[in-house]
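Hey,
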Amino acid sequence: MGKLAQNVRYAARALGNNPGFTLVVVLTLALGIGANTAIFSVVYSALLRPLPYREPGNLFHLGESRSQADNSPNGAQVSYSDYLDWKKAAKSVQSFAAYSGDAFTLVENGEPKNIFAEQVTPNFFGTLGVKPALGRDFLESEMRPDGPPVAILTNALWHSEFGGDANIIGRVIRLDGKPATIVGVLPRDFEFAPANSAPLWVPIHQTGDLITRRSLHWLKVVGRRAPGFSPAQVRAEMQGISAQLTQEYPKENASMFFVMEPLNQQIVGQIRPILLILLGAVGFVLLITCANVANLLMTRSIGRRREFAVRSALGASRASLLSQLLTESLLLSFIGAGVGLLVAQWGVNLLVAAIPETQLQAMPYLRTAGINLPVLVFLCGVTVLTGILFGLAPGLEASRDALNDVLKDESRGGTSIGHARLRNTLVIAEISISLVLLVGAGLLLKSLHTLLGQDPGFNLHNVLTFSVNLPDSSYPSDKTPPYYSGAAIRFDHEFTQRLRSLPGVVEVGQTSAIPVSGGSGSIRFVVEGRPTALGQEDECRIIGVSTGYFSSLKIPLVDGRFFTANDSNDAPGVVVVSRAFVKAYMQGENPIGRRIRFTYSAKNPFLQIVGVAADTASIDLAAPAPAIIYTPNDQGPNTFLSYMVRTAGQPVAFVGAARAALQQMDPQLPMIQPQSLEELANQSPSVFLRRYPSYLIGSFAALALILAVVGLYGLIAHMVLQRTREIGIRVALGAQGRDIMRIVLRQGIRATLAGAGIGIVAGLLLTRLLSSLLYGVTPRDWLTFVSVTLLLLVVSLTACAIPARRAMRVDPIVALRYE
């Protein structure tokens, strides 16, 4: 320990005597270590930190899918009847809990607000192992149709809407105009990403055919594994139960398959590959940082070779010299890590701020990303590893020099072949890693440009979108299918006319699912005259729309007609289908005049196809255009209405006028999430999953390129300095400027070409990891590889040209006196 303290004091004095060198190294390390720590903070919060539930490894997300190849329950839902049968039959699952989305209008302090909520079975929080911080959990009696209306708040909603009132338990609030009693407040750290972090929780009420209809899949289910059972046993038993239900209820379950995955995987599945790729990319930046700092230390050690030789002559061992140099490198690394900690905290804030709010709701654990104990442990580990990486090679090289060789090198002002070879190798490594990052960034940026540049089948410019939730108490619907609501139709017609009368409004449409929001449902159907096996009906997307929907989005008509005012509830049932529907289900026949029937009820009538609309990427911009059935809202209206207002100017300028029109219709109705359709598309998952990594990897690639170019510049500049005497002799013997330029550039070009060659091979292997994030671009896109390689060559030549021009101006007389 005494020797270590002595080494630290000596290292501190040595670094203090060279503040310029120390500052450059510390800032370089701060960028590399800080960037790695920031990314790890996000990775830990999203992927590694245990979920805030009891024994989260025993929790699974369960569902049913019509595709056996789809083994993910993400989006897969279950009927209430199947849910009850699962609970009765399963022995390997300790408890099941179900949930489904909802929304309410909350009037607090006189201002109506739309609050997204989640309906749950009473054992939901118990299954997760979560207890309310205040109050109690739901009771079984509160799930009955006549049960008392109650609600549980999240900690965030408790503070934002109720000021953290300590007497909140027992308080009565109004949801959709109906009283509800607050019975609990959830813990501060509770979030449930599969429910988009709903702030309000209510019990599921057993009403209507939502409870009795086995073909209606509307619940998502979480299960806790029973003690003594493995995940494989759970899966095997549940598959057996699913097969038994298929035999008992072939009409509803014949084509359904059981799917299951760990709850954590269901939460982070989409973002996992992105974060792992980012962690790998920033790890490359750290390697370049280490190589650059190693080059700087090696250059510095050349000037200290006489010092090392004298210490060796006085009896210092090679291990002693190596430990001194490692102590210096570790001291530099820890100082850089201290500054990097500030960079990391700033970086985490930027990383989280760059994620749209709609995406944070699906991965809420990122909100609390920051510097915590596991991140500090990671920081210490990276700091020590970094110090060893960039200090070991220069230390070994310096301690290996023989005394006589040092004295000879000092006399001629040169450097050892070993030093030169090692520095050249480090620069080649920097260039190759930079090229890999540049290729990855280029592929992602090209993919993003392709995605945003495609034609989605509708015009998303100058369209304002927002939603309105009509409370059932004020706009009641029939309690039996098809849930007809004349009040909702009257509201929609009058409000649409008010919007159309606003100055600058071109057209108004209304739909059950805003494009690119992924909110549409699916439905089973049969085509008239086409025999279909029991339970094997076709299934596709269904969207309810108004007469102005297609014109507001400028969706072309392919054949037939769109809906008109004559397609009312009293008129014969009609539908419009997409071109993809015709291709998938019409078997080459003319669809106009053909009839289809939805099979969820035997009483459903046949509906006539009156039109074919052009295909649209209405669900996901990156997915093929889906088959869609459009139904007229007047023949089956919703009470959650989404409007699209095409405007002559910027859509955001019309938010105030649209909100005023809504308040004139009903002061108790809030406008929900007003934003432009273009903004909504840019925040959609398909765009975010490409934009976020492309910008970050692009930033890392730019940083890596700068570091690599600086390293190359340092290599060539040092080479020119070491060969000044030789250059002077060549000039004295008649060498021209271009000859000197050629000599200097040759080494830089060799290093660049070697690094580029290695980088291209590595890029061809590693860019396959980006396949899931690319759209319209292959991982081996030759244009990207060529463009990036040319960019690297140009930048590298520019970096080499600066010391080369300095070499051309060497005065032979001065050079010959150079020592």
